[in-house]
Amino acid sequence: MKVMLCDEYKISGLVLTPDEAAAYDNNFSIYPVAFMLTAGATEAIMLPATAGDLALRSLRRYRLRLWYDGSQKLASYDKR
User: pTM for the whole thing?
Assistant: First the structure.
């Protein structure tokens, strides 16, 4: 029988789990190139889009459950 400990937190939508953070990661750094080629016009689109996304995420509330094994290492997590 395996013993697992569970911690539960109420979090805002601004807290990203590792699988969600990958959507915001840009390995190619293409945004600065687009910014330079359009002489900054992309900022007129990206700034309101980012501000809107952050505002919507901050209004959402989730329940984050973290499961730890016997040695207190994170075994799994679930965000609902």
Answer: 0.66
